[in-house]
Amino acid sequence: MTEVHHFTYGVFNPIAAYLLAFLGSLFGLLCTARARNARTRGRRNRWLGIAAFSIGGGAIWLMHFAAMLGFDVPASPVRFDVPMTLVSLVCAVIAVGLGLMIVGHGKRSFPKVLGAGLLTGGGVLAMHYSGMEGMHVAGEMHYNLSLVIASAIIAVVASTIAHWFAISVRGWARVSVAAAIMAIAVCGMHYTGMAAMSVHLDPDMIDQVHGIRPLTMIVPITLITAATIVGVALSALQAMTEEEFTDGAGTPKRGVHAENANPWSLKQASLAPVARRPSPRPVPMRSTSNN
Questions:
Q1: Residue 110: inside a domain, yes or no?
Q2: What is the pLDDT of residues 32-84, one digit of tens each?
Q3: 214: DSSP letter
Q4: Do the domain assignments include residue 51?
Q5: Which tens digit of pLDDT belongs to each residue from 14-40?
Q6: How many CA atoms lie less than 13 Å away from 223 in the CB half-sphere?
Q7: Does the N-terminal or the C-terminal CB of the chain have fewer CB atoms within 10 Å?
Q8: Does residue 204 register a pLDDT over 90?
Q9: 3-class SS at 200?
Q10: What CA–CA distance (Å, rounded) separates 46 from 51?
Q11: Which residue range forms the structural domain that includes residue 198?
Q12: How many domains, the chain?
């Protein structure tokens, strides 16, 4: 068993990972709060979808690979397989999305929250260990079963708590505290799963390690982080604008700003044919004769 480092750059990686987990959880809980106030099923599903990307893609997946930047095996190169890395992203987003759809519709109940927690927890585990499968080193990776089970328990408990927060917390203060708790749970699950791993080095495989370098992951992580934040912000602004100018069921409001409820109204008015009254026919002039 060879030497493994989890904090190559000191406290930078765990702090960056925690901040990403916190921001993703915060955006996600704000979106679920908007989903609870939605008056139509379509709008509720849209807010829940945004929350799934925020929590699954930001709080879980981005946190995982930000923390993985600090992972190193001094005796072996470390590389990442891009397709498997993307598979882990899909696992996280779909698992969180399915869980939110379960708890986001119908009456609130603990069995529903627990079922969603089990489903999402399984998806989080699939994300973590598929991401680890996409990491290549010169040797074989082995896992301690006890710590793997501990990481699974943490994942399920964290997912259940997250879904309970998603359908219950309101207000900036409570949402912020809930996001901080969720971020701790996500980071705890990740580092527990990492502690379960050990590497058995094979010197003959050192030249056979293929993939992208860990530091190269900074570019896609930065781009995906920026895209997630911008996408969530734009989607939220669009949804809030539509809700401001409609009554929640897609019907334009009357009164203030009603003229802006339909962006085509002014153009349609300008293109509408103008009804014209027929011009009066000219009156013929009578000729006069000299007497």
A1: yes
A2: 888 888 878 888 888 888 888 888 888 898 888 888 888 888 888 888 888 88
A3: G
A4: yes
A5: 898 899 899 888 888 888 888 888 878
A6: 5
A7: C
A8: no
A9: strand
A10: 9
A11: 12-245
A12: 1
- Judging by DSSP bridges, how do beta strands 79-80 and 197-201 pair with one another? unpaired
Residue pair 171/108 in contact (Cβ under 8 Å)? The answer is: no
- Model confidence at 214, pLDDT cuts 50, 70, 90, reads confident
Alpha-carbon radius of gyration of the chain: 29
Nearest one of 105, 115, 112, 117 to 44, comparing CA atoms: 105
Contact call for residues 120 and 164 (beta carbons, < 8 A): no
pLDDT at 291 over 60: no
Which two structure tokens, joined as six digits, stand for 273?
Answer: 């044919």
Report yes or no: 46 and 33 within 8 Å, Cβ to Cβ.
no
Contact 31/77 with Cβ under 8 angstroms? no
Using the Cα atoms of residue 178, residue 180, residue 185 and residue 189 in order, give the sign of their dihedral: positive
- Structural tokens at position 118: 């089990």
Q: At which residue do the structure tokens 């920026």 appear?
A: 226
Single-letter code of the amino acid located at 219: V
Residue 61 and residue 92 in contact, taking contact as beta carbons nearer than 8 Å? yes
SS3 state at 95? helix
Residue 256 lies in a domain: no
Hey, what are 101's tokens? Answer: 């759809």
pLDDT band at 118 (very low <50, low <70, confident <90, very high): very high
Tell me the pLDDT tens digit for each residue of 143-159: 999 999 999 999 999 88
Has residue 260 been placed in a domain?
A: no
Alpha helices in 38-144 (DSSP H): 41-52, 63-68, 82-104, 110-133
Judged by DSSP in three states, 203 sits in: helix
